[in-house]
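Batch job 17 of 40 flagged for manual review because the log was empty.
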Amino acid sequence: MYNIFKKHRRWKLMTAILSLSLLTVMAGAAVAPALNIIQEHFNCAPPGLVQMIISIPAISIAATNLFFIKLSRLFTARALVIIGLVLYTAGGCLAGVFDNIYIVLVFRAIVGIGVGIIMPLSTGLITFFFTRDKHSVLMGYSSSLNMLGGVLATLIAGALAMVSWRLSFLVYLLGIAALIPCILWMPSEFIADKKRDGSPVSDHSGFAPYIVCMFLLMLTFFIYPSNFAIETMKTGLFSQSAIGPIMAMMDLLGFAGGLLFSKIKGAAVTCGWLIAPSAFLISYGLLLFAVNVPGILFGSALIGFANGFGVPYIISKGSSKAGKNAATTIIPLLSMALYLAQFFTPAIVAAVNTLVGSSAFSSYYVALASSLLLLLFSVKIRK
């Protein structure tokens, strides 16, 4: 990918911005492979409290996004990135030092604050520093690196967890890989647009369809990693050892979907809005009704592709509407919707399961329903 970066005139700036995308989407779930070992260590703590190690970053990310506009008025892009990366790296690593579950959760919340600063910048700086003709390509790269970061984080954390649960938190040292290029090449420039009286531009009218689409897309996607192991083990078609490689394949297809985003979007012309919802419908349909090895493998691959294409599609459409101010208007709201969806997905699935009260219930039915809703709302952002 280095050659792809190098051929662009502003490749140093692009490298600095896109390095942030390696860290964002899997911020909370990076240590998920070690969760059962962490649960054994904190066996006196309620299981729900240990589960919050994964979920609490999403809440602090969403809360930080609410204040992002004010932060962008106080600090330059370079200062914001450095602050966010320091919080991400330090908070992530220090969580493995302590034996008090509440202190661990405090540091997990600090990770979320760091990501809450980084996430809007990882895509918003693309619209701020680059011309519109570059947006689709760079948004695709950003999405690909999101998925690649997920693969790397999961594999590294899983390997470290085999030695010690504490070492699994060292996966957040990946933040240093982004910190170095950002210190070297990130411009020290304010990104917050202001009116003549000095107050920030805060017109968010017309952004609701994009925010709803992002929430529905991430809800639809996140049902897969949250429930795939449980649902697949019911079928008896795969062993536990096969679950990880299958999910890694899903991430790799998401990586490919991001890389090909601009080309697919260009070829689809006016039908781009159909691609992610349709892929989700087909994929979850396969997982539900084609319960065989090819159906599960192809369905998993399509889910990765749908997410890899869908996230940059919504961000690029919303950013086009917001223009150069996207980093301080719509991007923080889309980030908040994305992480709130991750946080609420298990609760939504559990609530529907309780409501249905059937032993034949599958979380994939919820995914099919949310895919249909995503299709309906995508109509509103197609132009």
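Reviewer: the log was empty due to a logging misconfiguration, but the result itself is present. Residues 205-383 form a domain with the Growth Hormone; Chain: A; fold (CATH 1.20.1250.20). Unflagging and moving on to job 18.
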